[in-house]
């Protein structure tokens, strides 16, 4: 017999690694979501920056439907048209010459880190394996990626970690200079740290790291899983800095809600690889790539990309109105619609409280650590929905402040 689907069922059947909200979304359209009881929510979370075009965008639905009647899966023993189409779009609009498709940001980063070490070992020597990463970074949940990530709370407790990974303070070029050497194969960073509090890299820092990588023949890897695909107002964030990486990873918004990721690199770096060195069964799946092609074509337009900054300005205006009344925010972080609001010291460690109470007033938000609220809505959310959602959020803020 089919069990009754309730939030309580989650606690019985799902591995207890999540603490989801008490309601269950069952339908989404644009920037609105409805739960099992028909209650409507405004979505400022966007599936953690995944639903860049909202829920059930008609062009994505059409692309998925059309591909679903053609071919679903062939593995990488064979290739497929949607994968080649999406790869060409990425190459035509970035620094890249070669693409590797996977299914999640973690998988794309796993591939990037393996490629960096393999390239260094093949081209230089077997001891050129050091990876430099940064405190508060986040690169995924596989054992390699969580070890490269700079938050011990995610990587401790699983036994010996992969070796030769060093973490230094973000935006501190002197710290990088102190540890980089001829044994370094890669420096890995997020141009805007996502889970780490929405801290943006400075131009001087990125330029300096690029120069150091060139000096020591190390690869520069940009993790744009969260900040890429239009989220910050350009197709990829590196394009705003004018600093080009050797490897870039992309996921989340790349499929507009359908799981897909990609690792982008140059011809020179790609040449060290050969069949069997790395792979994935589902990567480049025709369904995912068909949806990804359509999402790419919508996002990579002046209308959408230029609209990101306009929407950010409205969000900050509304947050300022809330702050005038309740004095809860210290500063605003991030770029574009990867937007963070850092809480005042008296509200530190309460970010999750704001998130939970917001759902009571039917608005969905995120946190980025214990002290920063995070907003990653659809890139095409309407001004009306921003203002209405912020009215609801203001009521949630009032409740937390007066608790």
Outline the structure in words:
- With 403 residues, this protein is of the alpha/beta class.
- The protein folds into 2 domains: 7-56 and 302-401, Aspartate Aminotransferase, domain 1; 70-299, Type I PLP-dependent aspartate aminotransferase-like (Major domain) (Aspartate Aminotransferase, domain 2), CATH 3.40.640.10.
- It contains 15 helices and 15 strands.
- A 7-stranded mixed β-sheet has the order 4-10-9-8-7-5-6, sandwiched between helices.
- Strand 8 (219-223), helix 10 and strand 9 (247-250) form a beta-alpha-beta unit.
- Helix 4 (81-92) packs parallel to helix 12 (286-299), helix 13 (302-326) packs parallel to helix 15 and helix 14 (351-360) crosses helix 15 (383-401).
- It is globular, with a radius of gyration of 21 Å.
Please summarize what this structure is.
The protein is of the alpha/beta class and 403 residues long. The chain is 39% helix and 17% strand. The modification N6-(pyridoxal phosphate)lysine is found at residue 252.
For this entry, give a set of tags.
arginine biosynthesis, 403 residues, EC 2.6.1.11, globular, 39% helix, 2 domains, 17% strand, single chain, four-stranded mixed beta sheet, Aspartate Aminotransferase, domain 2, transferase, Aspartate Aminotransferase, domain 1, 15 helices, alpha/beta, N2-acetyl-L-ornithine:2-oxoglutarate 5-aminotransferase activity
């Amino acid at each position: 017999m089919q069990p009754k689907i309730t939030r309580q069922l989650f606690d019985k059947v799902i591995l207890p690694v999540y603490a989801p909200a008490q309601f269950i979304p069952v339908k989404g359209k644009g920037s609105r979501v409805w739960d099992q009881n028909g209650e409507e929510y405004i979505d400022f979370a966007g599936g953690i920056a995944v639903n860049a075009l909202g829920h059930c965008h008609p062009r994505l639905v059409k692309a998925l439907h059309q591909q679903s009647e053609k071919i679903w899966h062939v593995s990488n023993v064979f290739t497929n048209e949607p994968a080649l189409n999406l790869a060409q779009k990425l190459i035509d609009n970035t620094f890249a010459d070669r693409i590797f498709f996977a299914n999640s940001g973690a998988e794309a980063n796993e591939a990037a880190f393996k490629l960096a070490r393999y390239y260094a070992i093949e081209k230089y020597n077997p001891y050129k394996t050091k990876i430099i990463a940064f405190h508060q970074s986040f690169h995924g949940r596989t054992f390699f990626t969580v070890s490269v990530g700079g938050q011990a709370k995610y990587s401790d407790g699983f036994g010996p970690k992969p070796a030769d990974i060093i973490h230094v303070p973000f935006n501190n070029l002197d710290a990088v200079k102190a540890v980089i050497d001829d044994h370094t194969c890669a420096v890995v960073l997020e141009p805007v740290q996502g889970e780490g509090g929405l801290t943006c890299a400075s131009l001087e820092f990125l330029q300096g790291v690029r120069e150091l990588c060139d000096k020591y023949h190390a690869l520069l890897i940009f993790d744009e899983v969260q900040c890429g695909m239009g989220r910050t107002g350009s197709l990829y964030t590196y394009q705003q800095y004018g600093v080009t990486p050797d490897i870039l990873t992309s996921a989340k918004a790349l499929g507009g809600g359908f799981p897909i990721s990609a690792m982008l690199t140059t011809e020179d770096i790609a040449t060290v690889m050969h069949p069997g060195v790395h792979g994935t069964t589902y990567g480049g799946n025709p369904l995912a790539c068909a949806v990804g092609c359509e999402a790419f074509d919508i996002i990579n337009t002046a209308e959408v990309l230029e609209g990101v900054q306009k929407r950010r300005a409205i969000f900050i205006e509304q947050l300022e109105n809330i702050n005038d009344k309740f004095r809860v925010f210290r500063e605003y972080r991030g770029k574009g619609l990867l937007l963070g609001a850092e809480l005042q010291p008296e509200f530190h460690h309460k970010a999750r409280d704001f998130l939970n109470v917001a759902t009571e007033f039917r608005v969905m938000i995120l946190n980025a650590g214990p002290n920063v609220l995070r907003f990653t809505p659809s890139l095409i959310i309407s001004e009306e929905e921003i203002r209405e959602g912020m009215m609801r959020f203001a009521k949630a803020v009032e409740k937390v402040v007066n608790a």
